[in-house]
Amino acid sequence: MGVKEDLLKRSNGVCELCTSDSSLSVYEVSPSNGSADQSILVCGTCVEQIKDVDKMDDNHWRCLNDSMWSSEPAVQVMAYRLLKRVGAQDLLDMLYLEDDVKTWADSELIQEEEVEVKDSNGVTLQGGDTVTIIKDLDVKGAGFTAKRGTAVRNISLTNNPEQIEGRVNGTKIVLLTKFLKKS
């Protein structure tokens, strides 16, 4: 049997990341020797977003919440790398990888440029910091206003240096850094 046939059997004919069954192809998780053990079966949407960071849709990658628990090391490595890329620190904190799998995952992790995220006063922000909202902000789609003076604890950084993620009134939202100050 060939690699694709092995992967189709292993995955029951669906994408090993998002479970789609359309446009399936073999994706070698680098560094790879081309074997099924070091490859995954992915759909066209996943492979397009893996190869082109600018086309990444964070909503599509919600599927990683399930696929990160795969028993296949190649799927675990790819889920780890994608979780890093989308900045899903809460899921990364839950993910446990064996030492050899973690080494593989980190070996070719796409190192995007380190972008400094700064608050309204020019102070550098890091994941886990606490910030304070400096202006009342209407939260679209959630039906409430994030009030000035509200502390947002344990923030997460995003791929955009002008935005962070945090919980306000129990809802995880994206906030513009120009309306925040580090506490």
Total beta-strand segments: 12
H-E string: HEEHHHHHEEEEEEEEEE
**What does the overall shape look like?**
elongated
Structural class: alpha+beta
Number of separate domains: 2
Mean pLDDT: 87
Low-confidence stretches: none
Helix count, DSSP H or I runs of 4 or more residues = 6
Termini gap: 59 Å
Cα-based radius of gyration, to the nearest Å: 19 Å
Give the % helix: 25-40%
- Most strands sheet: 3 strands, antiparallel
Strand content: 15-25%
- Main β-sheet, spatial strand arrangement: 8-5-12
Q: What does this protein structure show overall?
A:
With 183 residues, the protein is α+β, with helices and mostly antiparallel strands. The chain has six helices and twelve strands. The chain has helices at 3-11, 44-51, 64-67, 73-86, 89-94, 99-107; strands spanning 25-28, 39-42, 117-118, 124-125, 131-133, 137-139, 144-146, 151-152, 156-157, 163-168, 171-176, 180-182. A hairpin with a 5-residue loop joins β3 (117-118) and β4 (124-125). The longest helix is centred in the middle third of the chain and has 14 residues, at 73-86. The chain is elongated. The model has no long low-confidence stretch (mean pLDDT 87).
